[in-house]
Amino acid sequence: MRRGIRGGDATNGHPSAFCDCKVGLIPTNTTQSSMKIHSLFLSNSLRWNIGPSDPITWPAIAEVNASVLNPIAHFDDDQLLSVFPLIDGRQHVITNRVHILAAEDIGDHLFDLIQPWLRRLRIASKQASLPTEAHGFSIKDFSLSDAKKWTQISSGRMTIFGEFHINTALDDAAIRLANELGMEATIPIHYDLLLDALHACEIQRSRDAILFSAIAIESLAQYELNKNYEAAVLAEPPPSHLNILEFQQPGGQTIKKDPVFSLLTESENFGKLLHEAPLYLMRRSLLKEFPTLYAKARALYGTRNRLSHGQTVEPNNEKLLQINQEGASSAAATAVAVFDWFGQSGYYVPDRKMIDAFSP
Known about the structure:
The chain has 360 residues and is α+β, with helices and mostly antiparallel strands. It is built from eleven helices and twelve strands. Strands 3, 4, 5, 6, 7 and 8 form a six-stranded antiparallel sheet that branches. Strands 1-12 form a two-stranded parallel sheet. A two-stranded antiparallel sheet has the order 2-9.
């Protein structure tokens, strides 16, 4: 479904400079003793969708009991901050800073903590362009009584967004999911790889988009197969369609393994990760269920092999992807579809599709 938006003028700098916009952020009546606000200068801009019921702060970095400030609640005079009203009543915010609140100065620990936190935000929101690095920060006193509160924007301008920007903007749900991810011992790398592919596609780095897309599929397939295999080995009794056997080890110990599954996955055969191995282990096959998608994945991996060995792709080679924006978009779309097949959905391929915009 396509969603409509009402738009204000996207102007870099203080919102009061917005053409035809009245941000009208005014101090709340919240009172609290002075805290330290750490304003991080990000390597790229990030996007938020903020609603009137959203809190002023969210828990952010548990290691130092820090919170992240609602981007509408505070902004620096020299900060990039663009605000657009959405048709659903929220506001779409683009900014190049994020403000971290803590009871004391945490600057000595900030760079060690901020990169993992930004990574979790990126994975939780699926915002491929979300920066995972900061190149500096400032620290000053701040009281929540100085925070701004929500005010509806009015605008006579029309604005059009790429739909994927709206769908992947940070919001309350994404921040809460990021906090849950913080309790995980490790987060699999295939999430980062797919987001790297989508970002490369967005900024038209075709070669990187193709390489990251192929590696993301391979990494995800291996992860899902290993996860399901480990669960099957531990099950009592093991699944009847598998051949999980006990093998004697030196010292009298025994281990359980399925030699058929080991044979299917021990060789570097990309096709088996999507067909034979999941068919045997999970009774699912991408080739059987979606043969066209399987063929696209094989073509993607074949292109990846060419690139990784320093070879070129012939312009008339219909079995491989072309190293251009069309090929990059196809690679990203294939990776997103394979992720969806494995149950990892909600990713958006950057493209030129727009959603309707309205003037009030």
